[in-house]
Specification:
Largest sheet: 5 strands, mixed
Number of strands: 14
Distance between the termini: 43 Å
Number of helices: 18
Shape: extended
Length: 505
């Protein structure tokens, strides 16, 4: 007989949401894991004692965490998604027939709370990870990656010279309080105009692209939608407006220890407190700062640095170099490079170079030989030696297996593929929430290893036979040896069984 299911859409009179959410559900375990009551104390000063009841701060932070856990990048999709999930409604503390707030309310509340409250939530979750034993703290891995901003590269404008008004403003109109006019020095604007004219002249050549010449740089163009976003280019990807997400990850279990948003046009050479990093952090100040704090920097030396100069020998006591002809190049003076780093200059006298037979191949077309070395040559040299060692290669593999997978998870599974907010503060809050969601997942999945020990008392006659054999300096009889081996084998099998987890874990 063929069956047919009829749907009558009846009104349910008895329904309890807690009975429909199983105990092993992610959001039910998450609600019991974290004590969210501290958020009321952190946000009490942000509200007035009058007016209509605002959005519950605990509900708001739970809601934006669901946004990261469900890999959503839109407040509209977040509200629609939560209305269809019973476990999320139970986690948020909402009934089935209770209407969720509007998406605009979520956006305004996100702007209301400062970044310090989001950092306090991150510290609260990280403290639980430390208490559970997920953080060792002796080794960290640091890295950064670009995150796409909520702005388009096609809408960038050129900055105006300082002291002028924008093209959309006239001298008779007052400046709107929300209008943000970004200015630039006059010499940068002149260089931009010269470069664009050169590109325009080149485009008139047959075979060239006849497109509008634009200079995608952070010196003169800016985005009116998100002025804090910066133009950056990652190898293998298109040029875009991005923010820079910087992470510090503990190498024990991959827990995020620190996260912050930076401008995308800044390099990775920021103040460090970590030990493992890639070549982007190879900076003289970083090496010197870490050594001053008695920390070992496992940072690969940048490719332009050379530990040895071909044909020259360095003498540390006299701080001088000796060339292949035996001429001494002593230290002469200090100087600064284009990026502001200090360097040391060594040179030999012009008379010695003029009379040297190696001058045509050593310094052709110059009066004398001059060497420029960084002021932090000793820290660079020690870092280069650590990089070439076997331990340095192992640390490189540890960094690649620790912090780089974390970035992959945050971008592809925690909603950092594109920001849904604008401004530096909003980007920093979003990255903090993604790191909190990642650490909460780590905390829920962590199962400490329990080691069981067992003491086995051997029979006294067996111990006496072993002791007599040792005193006589001869091997014991085979019977006690077989008994001892049998007991030890049974002990090993028993320990193996005890160390296995129960079937219901």
């Amino acid at each position: 007989m063929q069956g047919k299911k009829l749907f009558l859409d009846q009104e349910v009179t008895r329904f309890r949401l807690s009975e429909r959410v199983p105990l092993h559900n992610l959001y039910r375990r998450l609600a019991e894991l974290v004590d969210w009551m501290f958020l009321y104390d952190e946000t009490r000063t942000l509200y007035s004692h009058t007016g209509q009841p605002p959005l519950d701060p605990v509900f708001f932070f739970k809601l934006v965490l669901v946004d990261r856990l469900e890999n959503l990048v839109s407040d509209r999709r977040l509200v629609a998604h939560c209305a269809l999930r019973l476990d999320i409604l139970f986690f948020l503390g909402y009934e089935v027939n209770e209407e969720l707030p509007w998406h605009s309310t979520i956006s305004r509340t996100r702007q209301l709370f400062p970044a310090a409250v989001f950092e306090r939530l991150f510290d609260h979750v990280f403290a639980q990870c430390v208490a559970r034993g997920l953080v060792v703290g002796d080794t960290q891995a640091v890295d950064s990656a670009p995150v796409k901003a909520n702005a388009s590269l096609e809408a960038v404008l050129e900055k105006q010279a300082a002291g002028t008004r924008g093209p959309f403003l006239t001298t008779d109109e007052p400046v709107a309080p929300t209008a943000r006019l970004v200015t630039a020095p006059a010499h940068q604007l002149r260089n931009l105009a010269t470069h664009q004219a050169r590109l325009a002249a080149h485009s008139s050549v047959p075979g060239a692209q006849h497109e509008k010449a634009r200079l995608f740089s952070n010196k003169t163009p800016y985005s009116p939608t998100d002025p804090d976003a910066r133009i950056s280019l990652k190898p293998g990807q298109a040029r875009a407006l991005n923010y820079l997400c910087s992470l510090a990850v503990d190498t024990a279990h991959g827990v995020i220890r620190h996260v912050q948003a930076d401008l995308a046009d800044s390099r990775d050479s920021l103040p460090l407190r970590a030990l493992l990093a890639d070549a982007g952090y190879a900076n003289c100040s970083n090496y010197a700062r870490l050594e001053a704090q008695h920390l070992t920097a496992w940072i690969p030396v940048f490719g332009q640095y050379k530990a040895e100069i071909a044909g020259f020998t360095y003498d540390a006591p006299t701080d001088a170099y000796t060339c292949a002809a035996g001429k001494v190049l002593p230290f002469r003076k200090y100087d600064t490079t284009a990026d502001g780093n200090w360097s040391k200059i060594y040179w030999v006298t012009c008379q010695d170079c003029q009379q040297c037979p190696l001058k045509p191949t050593c310094v052709p077309g110059a009066k004398r030989k001059q060497l420029t070395r960084t002021l932090y040559d000793a820290p660079y040299r020690r870092a280069w030696q650590r990089q070439q060692s076997r331990c340095g290669q192992r640390m490189r593999r540890v960094r690649q297996s620790t912090v780089e997978p974390v970035f992959g998870y945050l971008i592809h599974h925690y909603g950092l593929r594109r920001l849904n907010v604008r401004g530096y503060a909003g980007a920093h809050k979003t990255m903090l929430l993604a790191a909190v969601a990642y650490n909460l997942k780590k905390l829920l999945k962590y199962r400490p290893e329990r080691q069981l020990s067992l003491a086995l008392a051997l029979p006294r006659p067996l111990l006496a036979a072993q002791a007599r054999a040792c005193r006589r300096n001869r091997p014991p009889s085979k019977a006690p040896t077989r008994a001892l081996a049998k007991q030890l084998l049974g002990l090993a099998l028993l320990n193996r069984v005890l160390q296995q987890p129960p079937p219901f874990c």
